[in-house]
């Protein structure tokens, strides 16, 4: 079961904003008590067993928007049940808080159900939600942490008195199972396997299904695009068959030349010499495309400098390279079957039967296969050497590209060697069986060629559409430079915004922190559409791909939500994260998540001193942007809203701790190797 959430936004009476803020700070804010948070008498959040996190934030009034109060919570179970528990343990406190709101029910505490309905009516949910530990309830998180602590304490004290230490780690594991888990009533529940959300269990199948669905859409698009140009499925199939026959005829003109100079080709390998023309041509094209790809990869030495001008053709080069590989393999298969039948027919007519002839044939193919095996071993040794070379000594860009190209050629040669071995074996397949295989294989290969061709057409169509969209985005970005001030000018406002992040910078929360941010959405239909599309995609990725403790490589986010409010004119971001504010933002800058960050916040701006400041300038939506470290941090500080009240049910645990504790519990009663058992105790 994934945690549920609520984001309740209510309008504040303009004259009561400061009174509401003061009441929350004095009466609702939990106080640090060692490694825990001590709740205030009127707000006993700790008595709500299902509550993970909650916070109160006040959004200030400006020229366009009136002040409002934000209450957000992450919890287990239905929202209605959580609000009922909240009003049970904090009815008086919640009543006093919401009395500062303009449309709060006048009946107040006399009608608690009306208060619940009022809160539910103002729940705006979230456009995007990320949870660092999906499927863990509050009880499970706390219980697994306690189990880990008990194991550590047991191992620390068990043999400190001089008892005999087990010779193997399996002895430690058996002692833990017997004394810590089964021997303590409070820990017996840990022997049961923890429930896992279906999105996590079926992650690989979901991704595979998504890839298949995307490929079907791409091929369908290729058919739609190709049909108006007379490239229907059957027509395209006929074109590919005729092209294959024409190229084969062209290759026949050089067949006699190749046979005279390389007679062993027809003697030892059952490929018609004319077909070598096709294979050599495709191999040369593949080599050229690969060289172009490596050149584009090493365009710049700065890993942050991901230029659109080379990323776009680089992706096309990768697509063309894999397409060429498919056509190359298919051409080899098409070349093999007629040669195999012809060679086998000649053998069936001209070869004498008998034990001696069979023995000679078997010996002939055996030594050739052994020779191919030696070749494969040499090629594999060379590939391993190329892989280890860069580990021992880093190469410069040119040598690295040469290394990668040689590694590709080595793998290509290994594929050829395997193919030759298959051809040698295929030569001894019975004739009738070979003819049947040839007919089936040719049909399959041409069908694959048609599918791949439509896939390539569809991909090119999508890239053409993407090129237009990115062109529009770039025009908007250039226009934004004239409409919005540079975010680097916000660096001077850092000290003025100190009170907004006193909690994080002052260390009030030692292990976990909370961040609230409010930004305005740039005007225009395209900007609003881009923002909602980015949030939709990230929400899907958060649920089905980034569901193992990290979001785009960031392992410190406990839970985060993005909410588009005020009719799509503002974006509210609420985040519970581990560690310090500064290091948390650095992770966005350094890791792959910067692209998602840019895709969201490049559509927003903040205001200060009567001026509007845009997000650090991005290029084509995904690149640059937040990689400008100081302007980015200044922008975040300007958009940040003071967190007045924050509560966490397990404030000493990080996402890594929570997920590691679950992994420890899951592994305690599974069949494990000695190495896996050792890893458990090393991780402790």
From TrEMBL:
Keywords for the protein's UniProt record, in alphabetical order: Membrane, Transmembrane, Transmembrane helix
Transmembrane region(s): 205-226, 274-297, 318-343, 355-383, 412-431, 443-473, 529-546
Name the UniProt record assigns to this protein: Uncharacterized protein
Protein source organism: Afipia massiliensis
């Amino acid at each position: 079961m994934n945690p549920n959430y609520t984001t309740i936004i209510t309008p504040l009476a303009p004259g009561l904003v400061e009174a509401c803020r003061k009441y929350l700070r004095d009466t609702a804010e939990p106080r640090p008590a060692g490694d825990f948070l001590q709740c205030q008498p009127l707000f006993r959040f700790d008595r709500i067993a299902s509550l993970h996190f909650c916070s109160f934030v006040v959004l200030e009034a400006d020229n366009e928007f009136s002040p409002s109060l934000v209450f957000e919570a992450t919890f287990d179970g239905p929202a209605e049940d959580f609000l009922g528990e909240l009003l049970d343990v904090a009815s008086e406190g919640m009543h006093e808080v919401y009395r500062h709101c303009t449309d709060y029910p006048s009946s107040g505490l006399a009608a608690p159900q009306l208060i619940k309905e009022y809160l539910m009516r103002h729940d705006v949910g979230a456009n995007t939600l990320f949870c660092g530990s999906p499927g863990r309830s509050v009880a499970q998180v706390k219980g697994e942490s306690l189990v880990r602590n008990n194991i550590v304490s047991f191992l620390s004290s068990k043999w400190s008195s001089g008892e005999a230490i087990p010779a193997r780690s399996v002895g430690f594991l058996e002692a833990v199972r017997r004394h810590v888990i089964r021997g303590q009533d409070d820990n017996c529940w840990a022997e049961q396997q923890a429930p896992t959300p279906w999105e996590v269990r079926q992650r690989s199948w979901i991704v595979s299904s998504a890839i298949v669905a995307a490929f079907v859409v791409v091929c369908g698009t290729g058919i739609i695009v190709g049909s108006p140009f007379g490239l229907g499925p059957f027509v395209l199939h006929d074109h590919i068959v005729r092209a294959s026959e024409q190229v084969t005829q062209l290759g026949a003109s050089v067949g006699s030349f190749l046979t005279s100079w390389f007679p062993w080709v027809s003697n030892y390998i059952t490929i018609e010499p004319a077909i070598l023309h096709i294979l050599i041509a495709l191999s040369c094209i593949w080599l050229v495309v690969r060289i172009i790809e490596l050149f584009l990869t090493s365009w710049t030495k700065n890993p942050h400098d991901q230029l659109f001008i080379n990323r776009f053709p680089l992706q096309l080069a990768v697509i063309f390279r894999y397409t060429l590989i498919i056509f190359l393999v298919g051409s080899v298969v098409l070349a093999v079957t007629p040669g195999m039948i012809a060679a086998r027919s000649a053998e069936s007519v001209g070869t004498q039967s008998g034990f001696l002839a069979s023995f000679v044939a078997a010996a002939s193919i055996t030594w050739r296969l052994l020779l191919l095996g030696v070749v494969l071993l040499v090629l594999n040794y060379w590939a391993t050497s190329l892989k280890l070379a860069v580990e021992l000594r880093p190469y410069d860009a040119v040598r690295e590209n040469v290394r990668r190209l040689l590694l590709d050629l080595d793998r290509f040669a290994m594929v050829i060697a395997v193919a030759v071995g298959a051809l040698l074996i295929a030569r001894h397949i019975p004739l009738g069986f070979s003819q049947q295989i040839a007919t089936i294989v040719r049909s399959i290969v041409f069908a694959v060629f048609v599918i791949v061709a439509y896939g390539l057409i569809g991909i090119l169509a999508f890239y053409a559409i993407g090129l237009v969209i990115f062109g529009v985005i770039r025009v908007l970005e250039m226009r934004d430079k004239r409409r919005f001030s540079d975010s680097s000018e916000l660096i001077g406002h850092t000290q003025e915004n100190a009170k907004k992040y006193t909690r994080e910078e002052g260390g009030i929360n030692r292990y976990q922190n909370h961040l609230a941010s409010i930004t305005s959405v740039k005007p225009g239909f395209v900007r609003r559409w881009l923002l909602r599309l980015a949030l939709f995609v990230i929400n899907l990725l958060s649920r089905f791909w980034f569901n193992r403790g990290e979001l785009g490589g960031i392992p410190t986010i406990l839970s985060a939500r993005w909410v588009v409010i005020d009719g799509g004119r503002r974006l509210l971001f609420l985040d519970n994260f581990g560690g310090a504010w500064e290091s948390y933002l650095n992770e966005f800058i350094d890791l792959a998540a910067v692209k998602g960050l840019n895709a969201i916040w490049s559509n927003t701006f903040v205001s200060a001193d009567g001026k509007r400041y845009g997000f650090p300038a991005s290029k084509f939506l995904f690149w640059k942007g937040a990689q400008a470290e100081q302007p980015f941090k200044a922008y975040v500080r300007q958009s940040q809203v003071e967190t007045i009240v924050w509560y966490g049910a397990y404030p000493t645990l990080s996402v890594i701790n929570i997920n590691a504790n679950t992994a420890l519990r899951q592994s305690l009663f599974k069949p494990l190797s000695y190495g896996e058992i050792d890893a458990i105790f090393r991780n402790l």
